[in-house]
Amino acid sequence: MRPTAPGAATAPRPNGRGGGAVIIAGVLIETTPGAEPRVAARLLRLPGLTLQGGDGKRRIAAILEAESGATLEELAERVLAADDEILGVYPTFVGDDRA
After folding, report:
1. For residue 87, which of 59, 64, 61, 63 has the smallest C-alpha distance?
2. In the chain, what percentage of residues exceed pLDDT 70?
3. ∠ CA 22-3-90, rounded to 5°
4. How far apart (Å, rounded) are the C-alpha atoms in residues 44 and 88?
5. Range 52-76 average pLDDT
6. Was domain 20-96 assigned CATH 2.102.10.10?
7. Alpha-carbon span 88 to 85, nearest angstrom
């Protein structure tokens, strides 16, 4: 997996820097063949999504952040619905920073 430039793909946390609890999910975003660079460029504009890398062809690794599980699920659905070149959003892990 090819890493992105430091800071280039970072979206602000939905709750700011020192706010409340955040639920995060690592996801693999599958695109149509050859679309990864175009899709990644469009995903940079989405709040709550941070790109982690991609293979340059059809797969993007990302982190989704939201204040609730329902909001996290809505974000994943928006990512999938917003771009015809995205074939799927597949979770790899889900974590909750509440102790």
Report:
1. 59
2. 78
3. 50
4. 17
5. 95
6. no
7. 9
Of 81, 91, 79, residue with least CA distance to 49: 79
pLDDT at 12 over 50: no
Calpha distance 89→79 (Å, rounded):
8
Instruction: For residues 49 and 56, give the distance between their C-alpha atoms in angstroms, rounded to a whole number.
Output: 18
Smallest CA-to-CA distance from 72 within 95, 88, 44, 53 is with 95
Token pair of 21 as six digits: 């609890």
Q: Where are the alpha helices (DSSP H) in 1-99?
A: 36-43, 69-81
What are the residue boundaries of the structural domains of the chain, listed by start? 20-96
From 50, 43, 48, 46, select the one nearest 6 (Cα to Cα).
Answer: 50
Predicted TM-score (pTM) of this structure: 0.77
